[in-house]
Known about the structure:
The protein is α+β, with helices and mostly antiparallel strands. It is 46% helix and 13% strand. A four-stranded antiparallel sheet has the order 2-3-1-4. The chain is rod-shaped and about 80 Å long. 17% of the residues are buried.
Amino acid sequence: MSVASAQPTTPFYGILASFETEEELIHALEAVQAEGYDKLDAFTPYPVEHVSELVYHHKKSIMPKLVLGAGLTGAATGFGLQWWTTTIAYPMNIGGRPLFSWPAWIAVTFELTILFSAFAAVFGMLAVNGLPRPHHPVFNVEAFESASVDGFFLLIEAADPKYDAKATRETLEGLGSHEVHDVDW
């Protein structure tokens, strides 16, 4: 048997553990984070605020910087285009008005700031969230069907630096999980 044929046919995504209650899930989240796991996600049938805080508390979003950068780009574009057209491309001295009359440009500058920021927010959110994503690997696990009804699930991704298939599985089983499943792509 060659080494190439010993490789799995589907790449491994992570390990999914199911819990009976939200308290068990919260306890498990706290425990795996204390052990140093970082790439994890939790799935609940209804919003649980403490779960969201635990999963996303340390993750800094790039969105504020992206929207600010786009807004500044929009402002510079609006202001710069008006400056260029009235002072360089088509200078017209009408009624003794100065060529560089910036107060008249505020409305367009503001509008382009908002436009660029809005586009950055929408398309940036889609990119950062990896959307559209019609299929997530956890959908391959049959037990995950109860996630929207009464299931509480904790996923530890194989991409986590601390991930070890055997040790991670033992950790999740030791935390009182109902079932532990391998998640394939």
